């Protein structure tokens, strides 16, 4: 099997991927702390991209749209330990420690530069992945609390993210969609992130664009793909990964239907 995941607790897991690449579209409901043991991870957001190599530790904040592409590298699989930081445990942490952060932030991917304290904390989880019995819940909470304390010590500004428990509020739908159309999310998720129910999202969307969300999203993604191919001279196999398409064949079919030629023909033509 190309992909394996082992949960020692609902909030702590280790994953291993040996295929060519593994792509997912993310807008996590909880913050995700990741320690990359081997391989490479590319995270693409609307206005910034990140590439993480083996040994990296980073935090992906909740509710942030991103395309995440995981690659094996240098003969090693993509292998990572991930820890979910739930709102309940974070609220409990800040309450017990009487911490009242200011300047709450909505998003920012944090990197921790292979800090020895954090590396030691996450490395201490490795023996537990060999356990046959259930990992005790109280011990898992202690390990998560330890990780929270360490990343706060490393990056004090992170309080602005970890202590922000607000739910998405109603925002400008058009501005949000123009910035985030390339992320292949369910419409329910787009609605939630703009502070709307699915019904209200569809109604407001049609009122603004006079198109259904599905048709508008396909058009915008194809336009972006065409730009990447013609102006950036990128390969179709790279472009579809970052423009919201499920796979290369679906991308090629939709692209040819709109433009009359396949993306590979355009790419080869640019090479001649």
UniProtKB/TrEMBL annotation:
Keywords, sorted A to Z: DNA-binding, Transcription, Transcription regulation
HTH araC/xylS-type domain residues: 171-269
SMART domains: HTH_ARAC
InterPro entries referenced in this protein's UniProt entry, alphabetically: AraC_XylS_family_regulators, ExsA-like_N, Homeodomain-like_sf, HTH-like, HTH_AraC
Keyword Transcription regulation assigned: yes
PROSITE patterns: HTH_ARAC_FAMILY_2
Domain of life of the organism encoding this protein: Bacteria
Protein name per the record: Helix-turn-helix domain-containing protein
Native organism taxonomy: Bacteria, Pseudomonadati, Bacteroidota, Sphingobacteriia, Sphingobacteriales
